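Example 3.
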Amino acid sequence: MRALDLGELGFEHGAHLLVRHALSDLAPGDELAVTGTDPALPVHLAAWCRTEGHRFTPPEDPPTTRLRGRIVRGRADLDRWAGAERAGAPAPGGIVRRPDPRWGLAARGALVEPGGPALGADLADRDVVWADIAPRLYAHAASAQWDPATAVPWDAAFAIPAEVERAVVQVMTYLVENEQAALVVPARLLARVHPHFREVLQLLAVQAADEARHVEVFARRALLRGGEMGTSSAGGRASLATLLAEPDFSLASFLLSVLGEGAFLDLLSFLDRHAPDPVTRAAVRLARRDEARHVAFGVAHLEHRAKLDPALRGRLRGAVERRHDALRDTAGLNADVFDALVVLAAGEWTPAAIASGHRAVRRLREGMDEGRRHRLERLGFPPDEAAELSALHTRNFM
Amino acid sequence: MLLMGAVAYDPKVVTIWTGFRAWLAARGFAFDFVLYSNYERQVEDLALGRIHAAWNSPLAWIRARRLAEARGRRVRPLVMRDTDRDLTSVIVVREGSPVTSVGDLRGATVAVGAVDSPQATLLPLSHLRTHGLVPGTDVDVRRFDTGVGLHGDHVGGERDAARALASGEVAAACMVDANHLLFGTEGVLPPGGTRVLAQTPPYDHCNLTVSDSVPERAAERFAGLLLSMSFADPDARPLLDLEGLKAWEDGRDDGYAALERAVDETGFYDADGRVTARGYTP
């Protein structure tokens, strides 16, 4: 018979750890003799064994012995883990194609006790949500976080004409609206992804956090000079509403990240180039860096999907066409936003400057179209089809 | 259809017996349950044949047996949990207390659980009697009546008794052995800050009582299914975890003698199972 001496240690101070450790080396039915001097030990040993499914026999003549009892090892702890399985392996290489919904929130690679409730995560297929670049992108995203309070020179001195300030405020108002859509879309998707694909969850979470910061800095810049926010058009909001309505992970990622945020890369570069003050410039530059990462994940994910599923391109095309049809009778880009972009690029209120600003906005649109076509071609669309689809993209940019 | 009564001492009772009903139904056994707000009505309905079986506290078992026998009927413990066997109750004092024997409690105040708690009131007070102390005469009894009618299933009374001990309001407190460990772990009692003054001999706790209105074959099939529940089965394990057992055991009726004696000493029920306890209003 094995023996365990607990010394002065009682169950109120953790004796169960030593008892459990000693029992773990025994087979069910084996006996463990326990000695110890804690006065409550006989009471607590018996109560603990009853709860844990072990049998306990007190000594026949307690006053004459240090023996406090014998435990016959039960098997409940072994039975609990009898059908346990590993939830894949911890590294991204250990991801399984279809994780069990009952693994739920267990860490990847954890030993999972069977019998838990199934998690209602409907995005639970590696081929639907995964991209090999996700872990690297997440690591990069985590290291590239910036503090809105200090990353933007909020106190920088500058003087700009009232009309230009109004244009900045209008563009910022528009950006806040779009960034809010870009926050909600990944946040909604992330709650549907099986946590087995945790790097995708992490990436979507950081993406949502990125957008939260963008919302903050754009709203703060809009109000920096104490004015009111600009306008929000029905057409612009209709365009964003169609983004929120897309339930398919790949299609939502395509519409938001590849097409919408892709266009925003050009818009934010444009604003960086034409920013009339250092605060606006810093805000759009920081946002652009984040958006580039979102686009990279979207493109990588869809490249991965397109390789596995030749029918994907047809569905992507369908999504663009459906969205185009849904927005056919809306006004597209808020006219106030268009005008504000012209004024920003013009920089002053003269005919020549306005003409130059107008040309710059036209070039911006051409640049957006070019970028879209390029990204569509990376996903395997032939050039003519890429051009056709790019032309169907929402006039609201996002 | 076997109809069983259970007392709703906690919302989880619904989860537990709904789970058992589904588990039994999946094995072709028709089972349903009715919930009672207290054990007295449950055992009365068992005696009247309104239900076939009852998940009974030890005190309810005693009354069920007395009521049945008074009518010339028979009830028996069909199964019980492994955790229902060989419990003990303890009378504890603070570590530095001058009380070193049960006799030293003469004239002192002892905290107990609810009036109808076997483990925290009836059995430990009976244990005092065996040491020559008559509760209410030789010792003052401070009762913590939480969940009266639930026969001590509600842990609140026992916990309040322990708190009264920790705060110095009483000289000693009574509780089941496992709760002494629990209260020490929770910090309700300071770990290592109390001393076990006395411990009752082992007794049995709850059992699943069936009446002779259930055909023998149905009772045996019911027992057989419950006894077959394995802790290794992921479908059964959550139910066993909730109900607080690792395995069902055969029912036995020889672990209730001490409580029978306590019931008679206090006149809690009479020999025919009538409620005769004074001030007991479940």
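The mean pLDDT of chain B is 97. The first strand of chain B starts at residue 2 and ends at 7.
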